[in-house]
Amino acid sequence: MTTNNPVALSALVRPGAIVTQLWPAAPEEAGGTIRALEAIRGEDFFEAAMIAPVPDAGERRDVAAMVADGVPTLTYCLIPVMGEKGWNLSTGEGALRRRSVDSVLGLLDEAREVGAGAVMVGSGPAPSEPAERTAALGRLTESFDELCAAAATAGLQVVIEPLDVLVHKKQTLGYTPEAVALAQAMARHGAAMSLCLDTSHMTLNGEDIVDCLALAGSYADTLHFCNCVTDPGHPLYGDHHPPLGAPGYLDVPEMARLMAAAVRIGFFTPERRIEVCVEVFNHNAGDFEAGRAIMRAGRSALERAWAQAAAGAF
Q1: Non-local CB neighbours of 181 within 8 Å, separated by 6+ positions
Q2: Where are the domains of the chain?
Q3: Residue-level pLDDT at 5
Q4: Model confidence over 167-181: pLDDT tens digits?
Q5: pLDDT tens per residue across span 77-95
Q6: What is the pLDDT of residues 127-173, one digit of tens each?
Q7: 3-state secondary structure the chain
Q8: pLDDT (tens digit, 9 = 90+) per residue, 115-133?
Q9: pLDDT tens, residue by residue, 274-301
Q10: Do 122 and 171 meet the contact criterion of CB atoms below 8 Å apart?
Q11: pTM to 2 decimals?
């Protein structure tokens, strides 16, 4: 790859948009998810989208029709509802883990109804005692054995996003080596799953992002460029999904550095074309145009970062 023969970003990745961040009120609004997907498709740039569960059956059918008509490929993200309902796939409370697994299983039909290709989940809150995390990770593996088997039958892939362990979201699964170990365990059991890596969570976990990308390799099929504030004394310390730049650490030049590294280590390849998103939260949840502006700013950031990465010939 050289600057004399520039490579388009879309040749190596699938740009994505996250409806749960851009229009967080969409699931509660009649037609909200449809409107969001129409806005995403209207950009003629994004190839993937992540949506929250759609409670209305009629709207699910409408979403499926859009998918059939060429709307970006969909991931059905269950993480928000898991948090709202208190579901935990790694808890030592047997009844709660059973209820949590059953609840996720119950949403697989919805994911299939909308034409999604994947469902995304989180592990659930970490145990209060750090020493109990090893046992919790074992229970998570047991939950995933069941979820992955059912998802495969439904024609779906299971994606898990490792979150931060100690700072903000405080989830059982966060550190990249543990996430890779889970993916490897599923592979040994004959189940397909993948990882969604997030720059905010890797940073808050004290991990080197490039090292994480290299370690995760083909087990990861999604990367979120998400900013975070790393100063414990700042009111936005943690994973609050702020815009790029100060007071957070992630800006366009840093994105460009990470993109260039992703190419060098083979994380971005034309064969895999992983999904890549800029994740910024719309705090004006009822303002549709605010979400559209954030979406377009994310697109601009991806394009500018890629131009900078390509200018350095990776």
Answers
A1: 137
A2: 9-311
A3: 55
A4: 999 999 999 999 999
A5: 999 999 999 999 999 999 9
A6: 989 899 999 999 999 999 999 999 999 999 999 999 999 999 999 99
A7: CCCCCCCCHHHCEEEEEEHHHHCCCHHHCCCHHHHHHHHHHHCCCCCEEEECCCCCHHHHHHHHHHHHCCCCEEEEECHHHHHHHCCCCCCCCHHHHHHHHHHHHHHHHHHHHCCCCEEEECCCECCCCHHHHHHHHHHHHHHHHHHHHHHHHCCCEEEECCCCCCCCCCECCCCHHHHHHHHHHHHHCCCCEEEEEEHHHHHHCCCCHHHHHHHHHHHEEEEEECCCECCCCCCCEECCCCCCCCCCCCCHHHHHHHHHHHHHCCCCCCCCCEEEEECCCCCCCCCHHHHHHHHHHHHHHHHHHHHHHHHCCC
A8: 999 999 999 999 989 899 9
A9: 999 999 999 998 899 999 999 999 999 9
A10: yes
A11: 0.95
The class level of CATH for 9-311 reads alpha beta
Helix 32-42 and helix 57-68, axial crossing angle in degrees, nearest 10:
20
The full length of the chain comes to 314
